[in-house]
Amino acid sequence: MQVQIHRHNNFIYLTIALVVLLLTSAFGAVMHESVGEIAIKIVSLSTLFVAFTSVSFESRWGKTVAVLLFIWIGVNIGQALLPDIDLDLIELAALLIFFGGEAFYAAKLGLNPKHHVMDANLVASSISLYLLLGLIWAMVFLIILEFFPQAFSVTVTGDWGEYFHTIAYFTYVTMTSLGYGDISPTHSISQIFAV
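The chain above was modelled as a monomer; its predicted structure follows.
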């Protein structure tokens, strides 16, 4: 059975890809460091690919996702070949643009007054919008950590993939207003963005 992604099920597949990305980041944290990092890279690439196939009919955004996919692959190849060069900021910026654009399209479907039928894709667009908002803020916080490694009360060392799960956890705990307090912003920049 061949999977066909089209306008009527695209957010269902995107939501599944986002959930798998978040689960992989959590399980990647308990795996061996290199295995977890590779798993996150593979699932991130898969998520970008699912998004590309699910929005290819939106010509402008489809082209943008293709460029972001190309940049993301190029950055990862560059980091593998030249590990001394830090390209994390470019990778995070590409993911931030990607998550932001996907959130725009999820909101566009969910807020479309012509969409009168409640279907699985509409529900999935709402769920993916929530997940994407959390991922957008996670990317913002990860970019802040690139400039200010002590911006949060967690120890940040190495590649962003190693602590992505921690920042994603902080983001969703903050978004749901649970605020456990185990992670907190300690720099004025991170505090303002957390607000």
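The helical segments are 10-30, 33-54, 59-81, 88-110, 120-147, 164-175, 188-194.
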